[in-house]
Amino acid sequence: MATYKKRGYKPKTKEEKEHNIEDNSTTAEVFNTLDETASKTEDWVIANQKYIFVIIGVVAAVVLGYLGYNEFIAKPKQSEAMNDMFQAQKYYDQAVTSTTAKDSLFNLALNGGEGKYGMLDIASEYSGSKAADMANYYAGMAYLNMKDYKNAVTYLSEFSGEDEILAPMAKGGIGDAFVQLNQEEDALGYYEEAASMRSNDFTTPLYLYKAGIVAMELGKTDKALKHFESIKENYPESSEAANIDVFIGKTRALANK
After folding, report:
1. Segment 121-146, tens digit of pLDDT
2. Is residue 215's pLDDT more than 70?
């Protein structure tokens, strides 16, 4: 058993002297082992320093490469994409508010004009950027307005933004396209997803209402009633709530048949 020995303690008996010699020998062995290990480590570093420097160089190159890409390629690319998008979005906004030549303006928004890219070019050329993501949204909505429902589904499905309004509107837009393609089951799923993505007074009651209408057409009166009652209870100030009692009454009547 190990015992604590005061500093300056001198062994008196033969047995204590032998133990003291053993302790000193053990300590010496420990230090010798540490010295050997350190020496071997140094030898290994010296022998492999070329490879160590290569590894360090690779790591440094990756870090610097990322920083350089972000600073000198990604940022300028994003800025260039946003400059191109400005004109395309201008065409899109004009198309939405215009009473005539809507399709012509939507086409300009999609394909570009005045030497600038359209949404389709931006989505392709700047793939992976925020600008490309937004271009997918606007392209999908443009196609939806032009009644090209398959392309509307394609581009809106590529949009991955998390915006409070645009995210549910993209899902709802896919639902609108599926309604026009007579795929009501798919439409219902997208309307319900759009309604559940965010809780606000604009998109949530809008897509609850659309989900309720499609559910009624599919004969899913329980779902329809749930969506309509949610509007009445949770979004009483929304425009969809104005006549919601009528739809609740109709749904209950259908459920009781």
Report:
1. 999 998 888 889 999 999 999 999 99
2. yes
Radius of gyration (C-alpha) of the chain in whole angstroms = 36
In the block, tokens 């950027």 appear at: 129
254 or 143: which leads in pLDDT: 143
The yes-or-no verdict on residue 80 having pLDDT over 80 is no
Q: What is the pLDDT of residue 154?
A: 97
Q: Which residues contact residue 105 at a Cβ distance below 8 angstroms, ignoring those fewer than 6 apart?
A: 91, 92, 94, 95, 98
Please, what is the average pLDDT of the chain?
Answer: 80
Q: Are 131 and 82 in contact (CB under 8 A)?
A: yes
